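Go through this pair.

…
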Amino acid sequence: MTEKLFGTDGIRGIANKHPLTTNFCLKLAAVLSDLICTKQHKVAIARDPRISSDMLFSALCAGFTAKGVDVLNLGIIPTPLCTTLTPSLNVDMSIMITASHNPYHDNGLKLIAANGDKFSDSQTAELEEKMAVKEYEFGYDTDKIGKIIPYKAGLDNYLQTVQKLADKGALAGMKIVVDSANGAMSAILPEIFKYLGAEIISLADTPDGYNINKDCGSQHTEKLCQTVTEQHFDLGVAVDGDGDRIIICDENGKRLDGDQIIAYLATYFKQHNLLKGNTAVATIYSNLGLGKYIRSLGINYQTSAVGERYVIEQMRATGSNIGGEESGHMVLSDYSRTGDALLTAVVISLGIKESHKKVSEIFPIFTPFPSEAHNLRFNDKETISRILAEPEVQTCIDGIKQRLEGHGTILVRKSGTEPVIRLKIEDEDAATAKHEAETILAVIDKYNK
C-alpha cells in the first residue's frame, strides 16, 4: 500500500522519526533526481534555523550530489523568499526545510517546482508511488557527482521587493513591535522595518535551534501583545518560523486573526485601485462574515479548499492578486509567489500610517458570525482516519449540515501537518453553533478509544 507522505504543505513530522530521517531524505533526493532534476541537474535548498535542519539538509545534499545533481545552498531564509527566488535560479526545483509554526522537534520538506509553485497533487502522488518501492533502483554513476554551491540570499533580496512598495523611511513616526519567532525572518524582519524608518522593538530574533516558535511568533502572541500595550506602541506584528504566516495586534494588545487581515487587504487594494479581477480569495475555513463583508464592497468573494496552494490556484483562476487563510497565510501575488508575512506587514503598516487612525479604530473590519472552533489532538493520524470513517460520525456531520443550511456551516477536516481534527461550526445564532459543536464533539469522543 502506498504511504501517504504529503499533507497540505509538504511532508511534516518529528525529526529523526520516519519520514523525517536521513535515510528517507537520501532516497527522496534520489527519486527527485530521476523524476524532476533531469534538465538543469540542479536543485536549490533553503532551511529554517531549527536544530534538525542541518541534518536533513546534509542528507538531501548527499542524495542529490550522489546522483550528479548540483545543490545551491540558499542558507537560512524564509519560505516566501525561497519560492520567489526559485524561477531565477535556473534549477529544476527547490526544497524548503521547515515545519513552519511547529516546535523545534518537528521538521518538514516543502517541495517547490522550477516556476516557484508548490508541487501539485499529481506530482506528490507520483513521488509517493516511487518512494513506496522498497528496492528502488538508484542508478549511481561514478563519473557523475554533483557539488554544493553557496548562494547568498536574504535581506538584500527583500529590500529589492520592499522598494517596490515604499521608499526608505516611509514608516517614520510609527512604533511597531516585531516578533520573528526565532525563525527564518530573524535577520530580516527587524531590519526591513528599520529601513522603512519605524521605531521598533524586536522580539524573538535570536534563534538557537531549539527556541523556534517557543512562546513566540504567530502562534504565541502573548508577549507581543503585552509589549505593545506596556510600551504604548502602535501595533504588533508576529510571523511564524518560516515567515509565511502573519498575525497582528492593535495598540491595546488585541490579537487580530487572518480573516480580518484579508478584509483589510481587500479594502485597501480596492480603495487604491490595486485590486485585480475585482476578486478576493479565502478558504472554506474563513468566517462567513468575511464573505458577507467583502461582497458588500462590490468585490467578488471566492473560496478554495484549505491550503495555501489551493488559495493560489483560485487566485490565478479568477485573476485576483489577493488571497489568504484565517490562519494567517496572506498571498500578495504582485510581490510574492506564496504567503509572505513581511510584505503583508509592510502593506498594513503603510495603510495604517496613511489613515492617521489607531489600529483599533480600523479593526475589526467586519463582525464575524458566531463560531465554535476546536482543534482535537490525537496520538496519530491513523486514529483520526478511523474515527472519521465511523458511520455514526458521518451521519452526525451530515445531520448538522442539513440543520445549518442557509444560515450556518460545519467544517470537519484532518490537519495536513499534524494529528489534529479541525472542527468549526458557524451560525448566525451563537447558541445554535454551540449546541451543534457539543453534539459532534460528543460523538467523536465516543470513538476516541
